[in-house]
Specification:
The chain has 379 residues and is of the alpha/beta class. Helix content is 41%, strand content 21%. It folds into two domains: 20-130 and 279-348, Rossmann fold, CATH 3.40.50.2300; 133-206 and 217-272 and 356-378, Rossmann fold (3-Layer(aba) Sandwich), CATH 3.40.50.
């Protein structure tokens, strides 16, 4: 009888449905904390809304650095994880991390990393966000549409993201005959930046008289490729202290600018992945998110929601928890997400993903349009 009970127990256990194991590696303490918490909330909301029972997941704190992410990835290997969601910051992936990912072949889905080169180094690292080259191309397209002919670029020399997006922008500007008259290094000091920009602005061409009614005014812009908690104050300083009246623009790093700060005058816009009130789907998500977490969702929230949703879709389509079968479904996902349509054509990153153009006028953010790298629009 005892042998029979033991045998039945073994049969029951062997028939028990397996669950896909997912490790979520985010900065939950220290550097990058606010981004990590937003990403965590987006992931949790996706799991809640989709109601998937065939997964189990755990969290690992990367603390916003690559060494800690490597530890998390090693832990995922020991725990038999099928997938890792994260990291979300470019600095969290280094050569050692890429080497391990290529060795262990546990796929990594990064909700927000956009640096092209990272995804070229491993087929097991999946992108969700539009790449820096797409962001840069759209920024150049919008600037050209506004008749911007000269720009100054502000970059952070200690940020791989900032350096990469700057190089992508410079190539894109060349295609539209937009001249980069100067590059200014941000040294994490608002006062130093304002002093440096004072000299740079003098390098812009002087306004020329129009030679005919058909000739449009030639304008210039300052591009800020920096993450800074006081970015709104930097924009104000440029407007108020330098009396700069040209265009201020930037990439997705501008999500750091918070609404309901002191009004910022002039033309200000940036390229981003998500706008809370773009359409019915994003509006409903925003209402639910705000009700659940008592704050507005960020791009980190929406991108992470999309990352988890796509993975769950792939698991359901694979009808199994084996990693290779799920990878195959991931590589051909076609998902209408909060951050736009996300379509994979057999690769590890979305094909020609769209972005949103957000205008920052006065003290509010306004949706202008969704655009893709080819310059077509979905109003």
């Amino acid at each position: 009888m005892r042998k029979l009970i033991l045998l039945l127990s073994i049969i029951v256990l062997s028939c028990a449905p397996q669950k896909a194991k997912i490790m979520v590696a985010l900065p939950l303490e220290g550097s990058g904390l606010s981004y990590g918490l937003d990403a965590r909330d987006g992931i949790n909301l996706a799991v809640l809304n989709l109601g998937e029972k065939n997964i189990q997941f755990s969290y690992c704190d990367t603390e916003g650095n690559a060494d800690k992410f490597v530890e998390c990835y090693e832990k995922a290997k020991k725990e038999g994880a099928n997938f890792v969601i994260g990291p979300i910051l470019t600095r969290e992936i280094n050569e050692k991390a890429i080497e391990l990912i290529n060795k262990y072949k546990i796929p990594v889905i990064s909700p927000s990393i956009s640096t092209d080169e990272i995804f070229n180094k491993s087929e097991y690292i999946f992108a969700v966000a539009a790449s820096n080259s797409i962001i840069a191309s759209n920024l150049a397209f919008v600037l050209n549409s506004a008749n911007i002919r000269e720009v100054i670029i502000v970059l952070d020399p200690n940020s791989e993201y900032s350096k990469d997006i700057t190089e992508r922008e410079k190539k894109a500007f060349e295609k539209f005959n937009i001249k980069v008259v100067d590059e200014v290094n941000f040294r994490n000091s608002r006062s130093d930046l304002i002093n440096d920009l004072k000299a740079s602005i003098a390098k812009f061409s002087k306004p020329q008289a129009k030679r005919g009614k058909e000739q449009a005014e030639i304008k210039n812009a300052i591009i800020l490729n920096i993450y800074a908690v006081d970015l709104d104050k930097i924009l104000l300083d440029i407007r108020n202290e330098l009396k700069y009246t040209g265009v201020l623009a930037g990439p997705d790093a501008w999500d750091e600018v918070k609404e309901k700060t002191q009004p910022i005058s002039g033309e200000n816009f940036y390229i981003a992945h998500f706008f809370p009130l773009e359409n019915q789907k994003t509006t409903e998500f925003t209402k639910q998110y705000e009700s659940q977490f008592k704050k507005l969702p960020s791009s980190w929230s929406a991108l992470s929601y999309d990352a988890m949703s796509m993975l769950i879709n792939a698991i359901r389509e694979a009808k199994a928890v084996e990693t290779q079968r799920i990878i195959l479904r991931m590589k051909y996902q076609d998902y209408e997400g909060l951050t736009g349509r996300i379509t994979y054509g057999g690769d590890n990153r979305p094909d020609n993903k769209s972005v949103v153009v957000i205008k920052y006028s006065g003290d509010t953010k306004g949706f202008l349009r969704r655009t893709n790298v080819a310059g077509t629009y979905a109003q």
